[in-house]
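During the second half of the funding period, the structural biology subgroup turned its attention to how the target accommodates small molecules. The most pressing case was adenosine-5'-diphosphate, which had performed well in the primary screen but for which no bound structure existed. We therefore specified the complex as follows and requested a full 3D prediction, including the ligand pose.
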Amino acid sequence: MQIESKESNEPMLMIKTEDVHKSFGSLHILKGVNLEVHAGEVVCIIGPSGAGKSTYLHCLKHLENIDSGRIYIEEKLLFDNKKGVNQVKIKNTELAESLLEIGMVFQRFNLFPHKTVLDNIMLALINVRKISAEEARERARVLLDRVGLADKIDAWPGQLSGGQQQRVAIARALAMEPKIMLFDEPTSALDPELVGEVLAVMKSLAAAGMTMIVVSHEMGFTREVADKVVFMYGGIVLEEAPPAKIFTNPENDRTRQFLQSIL
Ligand SMILES: Nc1ncnc2c1ncn2[C@@H]1O[C@H](COP(=O)(O)OP(=O)(O)O)[C@@H](O)[C@H]1O
Ligand SMILES: [Mg+2]
């Protein structure tokens, strides 16, 4: 599936950010992040703890409001902030609709512990997407099958392994039919033997053409699946390159040092 831009035959720019800044109090965390992600691309963000990777993903999904800069989703300007105030005149409903194009999976699975797997997936479908319970249940079934958990539909989160819970979290995000998926260290909280099953689901998603931004320290995955690797450091994108380039011959000494420290 290739979503093409209206203006040309290039794949559509699903996400573009220009000069995005974000502070928490006096801590200036994002210091002008520029990034472009085209339809069908898998972009892996790497970088040391505290670089602002999670903050950046939160800003894309508008879980945090940016101080300044511009955010485009599907070539539509959603935010052009100055001093935290959006200069774009856009209806809240229209903004919400665009933000629903983005699905997100966190390090911690964030499943509701007192709801079954089925209810975890159905909840937002019914409340946010406003589809019928019957249709939501059917969609949950299809998505659970896709992540290899069809038989866990009536299980409680506590009965599942961490890897299974994370796959349910992925199914839940996919059920909303996003066009872009953000993953924030989706395997960091897992026991090592459970990492592979989650990465396998992400690989199949990438192979199916999903546009993805993945923050991960899984360098095997990054090497194999990423179209572009982005090295974030000190709140900016210090370097971006295809994996073959960045892993063998990074331009920047900081990138080199970071890769040496983790490989
Ligand atoms: N809500 C917040 N309030 C205050 N500081 C925050 C908040 N979120 C993140 N930070 C700080 O921002 C910095 C960058 O964090 P983060 O984006 O999580 O980095 P990374 O994901 O690259 O490790 C950290 O120093 C963190 O403590
Ligand atoms: Mg983080």
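Two results from this model are relevant to the next phase. The first strand starts at residue 13 and ends at 24. The mean pLDDT is 95.
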